[in-house]
Amino acid sequence: MAVCIAVIAKENYPLYIRSVPSQNELKFHYTVHTSLDVVEEKVSAVGKSLADQRELYLGLLYPTEDYKVYGYVTNSKVKFVIVVDSSNTSLRDNEIRSMFRKLHNSFTDVMCNPFYNPGDPIQSKAFNGIVSGMMVQTG
Amino acid sequence: MAGSQWELPPELCCRPMAFVALTGLDVVYNAVHRAIWDAFCANRRADRVPISFKVLPGDHEYPKCRTKRTSYEWYIPKGIVKTGWMNKHLNLVPALVVLFYELDWDDPQWKEKQSECATKVEIVRTSLQGRNTKVAVVLIQKKTPLPPGEDLVASERASALCSSCDLSGKSLFVLPHTDHLVGYIIRLENAFYEHAQTYYYTEIRRVKSHKEFLNKTTHQLLFVRHQFKMAFLSELKQDTQNALKYYRAAYSLVHELRAHETNMLEIKTMAGFINYKICRLCFQHNTPLDAIAQFRKHIDLCKKKIGCAELAFEHSAWMSKQFQSFGELFDEAIKLGLTAIQTQNPGFYYQQAACYSQDRKQMAQQFCQVGTTYPSPDPLDTQSGGLDFYGQRPWRQGHQSIDPTDPEKEKRGILALQIKERDVPHSELIIALLSNAVAQFKKYKCPRMKSHLMVQMGEEYYHAKDYTKALKLLDYVMCDYRTERWWPLLTAILTTALHCAYLMASVKDYVIYCMELLGRASTLKEEQKSRIEKNLFKVLMNDVPEAESECDQSSVGAARSLWTDRMALSGSNELMVEMQDYIPFIQCKARFQSPCFHVDQPIQLQVFLRADCPHPVSFSKLTVSLSNQEYNQWCVVESSVQDSMMLLPRKPRCYNFSFVAKTEDVGKKVEVKMMLGSNSGRCVFLSWRGAGGDAASTQEALQASRSSRRWGRGNEARQELDWDSLTMQHSTMIISRVPRICVQLSHQPPALTNEMFCISLTVQSQENVVAKDVKLTAGLKPGQEAGLGHTTHVTLDGSSVSDDNAPALLTDVPLGDLKPGEKLEKCVYMRCVSTGPRIFLFHVAYSIDTAVEGLHIVCKCHKDETVTVETVVPFEVSVKFVSTKFEPLEQVAVDIPFLLMTDIRSSSPWPLLLSSSSLQLVTVTSSTPPLQSQLKQVVLQTGESASECFCLRCPPDTSSSNTVATGQYVISWRRYYSSADSPLIQTTVTLPHVILESVPLYIYADLPSFGRVRESLPVRYHIENRTAQVMEVEIAVDPSDAFMFSGLKQVRLRVLPGTEQQMLYNYYPLMAGYQTLPQLNISLPRCPTSNSPALRRFLPQRIFVKPQGRQPDDASIAAA
Predict the structure, then answer these.
(1) In this complex, do B448 and A120 lie within 8 Å of one another by their Cβ atoms?
(2) Residue B1008 domain-assigned (yes or no)
């Protein structure tokens, strides 16, 4: 399960960031922010070859000593980032994929909300609930 | 250097090379020896064999060899690898000792020299007792040796020397000291290299053979040691594949060792060494993935092996070193050609190393309290000054049992280490690692990672109390986070920066950071903001701010005194802060009410201010500086004693200004620059360039526009001003006053080519006062197709056709003054030489006195009217040449009359009056006397045609060229409905050229215009010879059904040059109607090429025959 989940706007500012409360929140912010380097690189590399048939899931972005960072980019260039504890070896690629898919579905619901203004921080309770379900439960 | 404890020993990091000792060389005093030594060691390029040479004296003492153990039964090892072992094999124990000796084969004192050499060999051998080191002898000779086998003395003496020195033949070399020294040396060193390889091979075998004596329980350490030794010796042998194999074996054995607190450091140290070697070899073998995999395994295995809890910082230091050295290996490999990628580059390892160094620092701070005194005697002191085995504790060397021998000693040792750790410059280490990582990430396109590391560096500088550097770094990256809009990160960085600014007592930085931390981008909590705001106001009141929390006490004290000094120092009390690049706590937006103002309207400017901080802010002055400084005086608000200007939190406040623009600023832009002063002790000017706004407001405005697009209607209903959707209008255009005159144009399009096209202009004033200096500019509107200017001519004089010098645009024609309601008319004539559309501009300008808000100004007004006029040709003229028989002519025969037919077809929509037409002939002449034009005063409606016919003849003496010009056709015309005095326009049509031909024999006929049945029809044929020769002509008349005739039926006659013959026939028509005349067959017997039809062409072919007339019969006429 994830320790941090983030949604990043097309312009690379955060729309939503949530991390497990037990750890240093700022550190996760930095982790997510730095992972955008890799996302941008991957997206631009793909853009050159096959613009249409792009796989949304970017896979493992980069491993750090403590965390694994996974990325996902929607067609509208909104990025999802999931940070998983490195010690959590049981989590397979498929499960990460399905987490992203769930996240994307929920994000789509948020966007469909006529009261939501695209580009604003996400405050949806439903979305929050989905994210909570994917986070590591502490306490 | 305090970190040196964790540095890898240099003998581990170097590339092992076979060690060969050279003796018997006197490199100081003997030039020949010097040259030989230089040849060995100078310019060792990669293609030379890897040997490290050393010159040693002949009687050098080599390290003593300990007596070989025959059994390991009672032996308990004290450690894994001795600290001296690697160095010993690299630099002390040679694989081969080479004795250089000067001796020629034909030396007169051969015997003596031979025995001296043998003695020297013996000395070396004794010194190497017990070692397998090889000995070789090199004879330095002055003469070039003969090819092998030819010099019998040499081979005999060589074998004698070998036996006396107890050398094999392979170990005796000859080095002739001749020109090819380097060549000989290279051959020699290759031979040495082989010997050295054999030596290392036997050494490996020897170490391997120990294995069978070992048992698993007591000799675990030896398993590791032996594998390590074999690997290292293999490296010396340059057998890196096997070396890697042995190192891998050693690595797994190290982790099989029973680990406990006492030997943890030793195990980790050795594991680190072996891991280093494995990674290094993997990179060398160009298998970087193996290296990375090994390193990961190593880290995973060792991460949790912390060892002694009180010395946990040691583990972090060790981990940091592991990452750092791997990063260096990786970097080294990249320099040698390896390519790294964004997600796998040395930067990550440096970063992790820095991370562990940070852990180390934290732990060091935790464990190493101040105040304890260093224990005496120094537990870290050893008798030898160093350790016997790698990774052991100085106070209990060789100790391998689980519990420490002496707990008291142990405690003192730990204390000593802790105290030493306290003095380590952790920040320095961390910053060095971080800057390494920054350099790498810069290279591999990771700007955000780079920024993150720079933040860490800045924080580290802050911890190291180097605030200037810290601020420099933080300032540098802050704007990256600002533009990326990561507010939590920006807030964190700003907080650190604020601490720095406070501790440095840098007023300006402090004020700026406070303002941004109070701003809307800050994610701080209200109470923190409130505290910061209070501090900010303290600084503005020239007071010392409260200490920032989380700063340590000693620096706070220093900072406080700095602040007091700063405050005492008056003078620099004014601060100017540019707000554009920050997200400050006061937002400012200015807008002109409209993007343009007429000069007779007052300009209205609104300035909106909003404070985002938790407490109300008062300020003293608001000024606006506009691009024309003179307006600034109207845009100032100052607080007075009664009414101080307050900004309430999150309540936008609007200030309205209005001023009258200067007439000379018409057409110019006015721009706003805001300045907000707040002075009370210290004065800070906040200045916004443009019309306010800051680093974040563009995006906010975008967001606001998105939402208002959705909620367009809701927006209007909202009572309060929506700050985000407030748009800025940073400039306005001052435009001239709206003209109040009426300009009307009347004309009759389209214009006809070349005519004086009249456009009449009516100007009527609707002003209340006199419009002065009315001026008209009329003509072709500038900026159209380039050629139009030359084909358009404008004039005010319509009485005559304007010449080509008339301009395309008449400028500033004075029309005098216009009283209110007065009307003025003016005709403007345009002459368009070419067809096509044109835009004409009529610009009426005048000035008028008016008053704006009690201020008298003279306004200039103008009104523009444009009209598009198409120009068309009035008529088309077609011209053709025909013969007198009205047959079209391709060629015109000289001196024979022909006809010119002109046809004028009107294409003008207006009726045209053709006044006259005339021919201006060249070459050809008119056969008729000049007549009045046939077209005089003809009026042509659209589509109607008028034709004229002229009979012309080409005079006989113009046979110079084939084609000749015929002249021009001039038509004068005007519009039928134009006034009688309007000028006539002359249109000239150039007549086509004709091709001339000369006719040698001109035959024509004289005959009446018609015949009558059964009445005689006399026809006279003329045969004219136009050549200079006598012509013989044969003429025959064909019979015809329609005619009877009398005359010569067939005749042959001669025509003299320049004369003519006539032949008379009397035709008698038999039938009425158009009848073909009897055909005349003409042939020139002398000139067979000429044919009858060509000669016949001037003859009429038919004639109209009227029926037989009745006798005048009045009765019948009356009956009809």
Answers:
(1) no
(2) yes
Which of B:443-462 have CB within 8 Å of A? Answer: 445-449, 452, 455
Co-location of B751 and B817 in the same domain: yes
Domain extent, residue B591, equals: 586-703+726-734
In a domain, B88, yes or no: yes
**Domain presence at residue B258:** no
**CATH number of the domain encompassing residue B646:** 2.60.40.10
Across the interface, whether the CB atoms of B348 and A64 are under 8 A apart is answered yes
E-state strands within B4-129: 18-23, 51-55, 96-102
DSSP reduced 3-state for B689: coil
- Do B893 and B927 reside in the same domain of the chain? yes
Q: Is the dihedral of CA B45, B49, B52, B54 positive or negative?
A: negative
Rounded CA-CA distance B232/B209 in Å is 16
Decide: helix, strand or coil at residue B96.
strand
Q: Is-contact B777 B843, C-beta < 8 A? A: yes
Compare CB distances from A34 to B355, B449, B702 and report the shortest one's residue.
B449
**What CA–CA distance (Å, rounded) separates B328 from B272?**
14
Relative to beta strand A79-85, strand B645-647 is unpaired
Angle value at C-alpha B488, between B485 and B494, nearest 5 degrees: 95
The span from the CA of B1 to the CA of B428, in Å, is 12
Domains and CATH numbers, chain A: 1-132 (3.30.450.70)
Quick one: B884 and B955 in the same domain? yes
B861: in domain: no
Phi, psi of B867 (to 5 degrees): -145, 140
Q: Examine the domain organization and report whether B951 and B815 are in the same domain.
A: no
Q: What is the pLDDT of residue B715?
A: 46
Q: What is the DSSP letter of B91?
A: I
Mean pLDDT of chain B: 84
pLDDT along chain B (1120 residues), means of 10: 69 90 88 88 81 87 77 80 90 91 85 89 87 88 74 82 85 83 87 92 90 81 91 92 94 88 88 95 93 93 86 91 94 91 90 92 82 77 79 81 78 86 88 94 91 93 92 92 91 92 89 90 89 87 80 82 81 76 86 84 86 84 81 79 75 86 69 62 76 75 71 50 76 83 88 88 88 88 81 84 80 86 88 88 88 80 88 89 84 84 89 87 77 82 88 74 81 85 85 82 85 87 85 85 85 86 88 86 77 77 83 59
Give me the residues of A, 18-57, that contact B with CB < 8 A: 25-26, 29-30, 33-34, 36-38, 41
Whether B315 contacts chain A with CB within 8 A? no
| Model confidence pLDDT, tens digit, residues B419-444 | 888 888 899 999 999 999 999 999 98
Token digits for B221? 């350490």
Closest CB to B703 among A29, A36, A119: A119
Q: pTM of the prediction?
A: 0.73
Among candidates B486, B707, B710 on the partner chain, residue whose Cβ is nearest the Cβ of A33: B486
- CB B478 within 8 Å of CB B452: no
A interface test, pick of B357, B446, B478, B483 with most A CB neighbours within 10 Å: B446
Residues B590 and B697 occupy one common structural domain = yes
User: How many structural domains is chain B composed of?
Assistant: 6
- Name the domain boundary from B513, B537, B571: B571
